[in-house]
Prior knowledge:
The complex is a heterodimer of chains A (about 160) and B (about 80).
Chain A: H1 8-16, H2 20-42, H3 45-61, H4 72-92, H5 95-104, H6 111-114, H7 126-141, H8 150-162
Helix pairs in contact in A: 1-2, 2-3, 2-4, 3-4
Chain B: H1 3-14, H2 20-31, H3 42-60, H4 62-65, H5 73-81
Amino acid sequence: MSRNFSTDQQLIDQLLQNDTVAFEELYRRYWHNLYSYSLKKLHSSDDARKIVRKIFVDLWERRHTTPSDFSISQHLYSHVRMAVVECLNERLNNAADQELIAETLLNSFSTKALEPARRPVELRNEGETVFLNQRVQADEVHPKYNPFSVKWLAELVSVKTHS
Amino acid sequence: MKTEILHKKLERYLNGESMPAEIRQIQTWLSVPNEEEKQLTKEEKDQLGADILAEIKEATAYPLFYPGSEKQWWQKAVAAFF
């Protein structure tokens, strides 16, 4: 690990002092996870790109109004989920997009498609298990950098449960 | 489910008017792991990251208002040394 490593909290503190280097470091740490998550949900690289841009523009514009107990990973996690829902809703306003959504996304809301989220990990199919194993391995390498990691989500749920 | 029904559900969710079952359905959809999309090469990923950052800079104009945040070469050298 680099001796110049800064924690997310240090970067947020620097961001409050208008430090653009800290802002760009946060961007480098998280943009791809946000992009990848949005792309998987919406199947649109343009929308994924728009969501990443919006989240980081908002982070910069609202840097002075962040609460004292601000957690960047929780902030990004909740914002990307809301942005994905907003984007899908916006696309459904467009008649031309509705057909495309019916073909590509509608099925992902079916009970069958949502079932894997309810099953215990050991009962999931091979593909999903590989996916989870890759996630866990990724956690071992960069636990702090992966906002959608299994450990990260578990910590988040634990924090929310306690609070 | 039809797109009209999904649209209404999402509208209610965004307005905070969803039924608990609808909230569960949408949040489960947000949480369920999806299949991997086509992987970008390192070059494509770097280029995409740089392009989005350029758009953010353009939207916020922060390099114009805070040009001094970038460390000078001698500051970087001192930081690397220590």
